[in-house]
From TrEMBL, chain A:
GO terms for biological process: amino acid transport. Residues 34-229 form the ABC transmembrane type-1 domain. CDD domains: TM_PBP2. It comes from Azotobacter vinelandii (strain DJ / ATCC BAA-1303). GO terms for cellular component: ATP-binding cassette (ABC) transporter complex. This is Polar amino acid ABC transporter, inner membrane permease component.
Automatic annotation (TrEMBL), chain B:
It comes from Azotobacter vinelandii (strain DJ / ATCC BAA-1303). The lineage of its organism: Bacteria, Pseudomonadati, Pseudomonadota, Gammaproteobacteria, Pseudomonadales. It is a multi-pass membrane protein. Part of the binding-protein-dependent transport system for glutamine; probably responsible for the translocation of the substrate across the membrane. The keyword Translocase does not apply. This is Polar amino acid ABC transporter, inner membrane permease component.
Amino acid sequence: MSWLDAFVQWTGWLGLDYRFLLDAYERGSFVAGAWVTLQLCLCTMAGSLAVGVALAAALVSGRPWLAGPTRLFVEVTRNTPTLVQLYCAFLVLNMLISEVIGGANPFTPFAWVVIVISLHKGVFHAEALRAGIEAVPQVTLEAATSLGFSRRQRLWRVELPLAVRFALPSLVNNLIELVKMTALASAIAVGDITYASILIWTQRDNVLELMILILLFFGLLSFVVNCLGRGLEARLRMPGYGH
Amino acid sequence: MATELSLGSRAAPDRLRRHAGKILALAALLVWLAAGAPPREVFAPLWEWSPALLKGFALNILISLLAIGLGTLLGLAIGALNLSPLRLLRLPGWLWVQAFRNAPLLVLIYFTTYVFPFEIRVAGHYLPFPDWLKVTLGLALPASANVAEVFRGAVASIPATQWEAARSLGFGRGQILRAIILPQCCKRMLPPWMNLYAVITMGTALASLVGVHDLIDTAQIATNTVNRVGFTVLIYASVLGLFFAYCYPISRFTRYLERRHAFQ
């Protein structure tokens, strides 16, 4: 770990205190926090995309009993703070579930964060996908119908593939927002990178140094997501369709 | 909405059909209130706590207004830097925007809360620097970066032909900006700016995490004091409702502005 020593010495020379990196326990907890954040990101990305497709399908279903409540859910989710939603889920719903089934509550704080952020960002995905579905040309749909596609087949084989291409830039944007939002997990003591850092800086009082590390970490994650999104966009590009 | 009103009674059955869900929900609420006999021991503490909750929410709104005000001023200055033809001036603006747009709000709030001192020395006097003001700054930083981007987008959305036409009429760069481009930008910036305000308002909820006595902090104190299941459910529902009641009209108005702009 000589390069780590050199790094600590060099930053110490700049006036930054990174000595916690030399402590195996604190370094371990920081790396574990980064790993938890990564897991959170992957789980919520998959969850939010699934929720987004389901909500978008409900929104464009044309059935008022399905589209109406979905629209209500979308509006409430978009116009209330995520932290309050997280508290409503973790402090209220979790409490009610615990009361009903007793001590063995299967939902961990990690699961609640995944559920809440998936639902929250799923709503934004749904709005993007809905716009994409509405941008699918009417003639394409008529052609699909005349070829004997059922409503479900039409949604899965024609509307969604085209809608995804149209909505991809906003979906990638939402995913970057999602990565940033996972910092919220620290509010209910999930041991993500922010929470691990809080524990370290209450001991060592080196807030600025850890902030720089956290910001670099989130910047790197956003950058990776952005690059993957751009790559996917280029791969899926159909001449003459979409942006 | 205006057309509906002018149609008057003829549209009434149609309106009934369109709002069937809302009417049903209202009816269900009334039935619940009448028949379900809301337990007094749940609603009485809510009534008791409501002044404290409203005071907390007022602090949330104050923080959001100050943050968006500061952020707008700062953001316009940075946006102006970003428009400069000199790369040396554009670089700091670009860095600012990248840094504060890509950072999680919560991390920025922790940053301003823990890095800034709790009092500032001005001319021999110690001025307190309260936590809520630090949170305001923590929200103003990302707000400024976003305003700068909104500003840049608005200027870029003005067709390049207008620049060329103005230049051929003998306007200088500053004159074109002041007399032609910026007046048009104001209108275009309004919808995204209001969107940003709604986001910042929702971001004020994070203030409770650094110990500011805002709405959510008050709600938590209330639940711990009363310690009753029904009350906990009710108080978090009302916190959700308060934020919704404040942010939903903003988002509706934004959508209305966007639609009006799109048809022009």
